[in-house]
Amino acid sequence: TGYYRVNYDIVNWRKIAQYLNSQKYRNIHVLNRAQIAQYLNSQKYRNIHVLNRAQIINDAFHFAIEKELEFSVFWELASYLRQERDYIAWYPMLKAFEFLSKI
């Protein structure tokens, strides 16, 4: 076992971004608490596990910093976070902000 980063080709990075930003993840902010709880426990939300969503952000940021991925693609991916309610998925973005604040 080991820790590996995954650098998809640009088409697949964009497909992932499109999926995360699709209706399956959109408009959670208009739901009441009971609806949010139901949604967060639904299969639609869990199609990509929270740890995988976090890793996608982490990998994309790493590859963008290393100039192996366009920053615009990273921002496409990160834009889904406006609907994200799980701290685990937000953590790599917070670390990205921390890194950017130091350069």
From TrEMBL:
GO cellular component: cytoplasm; extracellular space; membrane
Domain of life of the source: Eukaryota
Domain ERAP1-like C-terminal: 43-102
Keyword terms of this UniProt record: Aminopeptidase, Hydrolase, Protease
Signal peptide span: none
Entry GO MF terms: metalloaminopeptidase activity; peptide binding; zinc ion binding
GO biological process terms held by the UniProt record: peptide catabolic process; proteolysis
Annotated transmembrane regions: none
Gene3D superfamilies, alphabetized: 1.25.50.20
Pfam families: ERAP1_C
Family, as annotated: Belongs to the peptidase M1 family.
Full protein name: Aminopeptidase N
Species in which this protein is naturally found: Camponotus floridanus (Florida carpenter ant)
Lineage, uppermost ranks: Eukaryota, Metazoa, Ecdysozoa, Arthropoda, Hexapoda
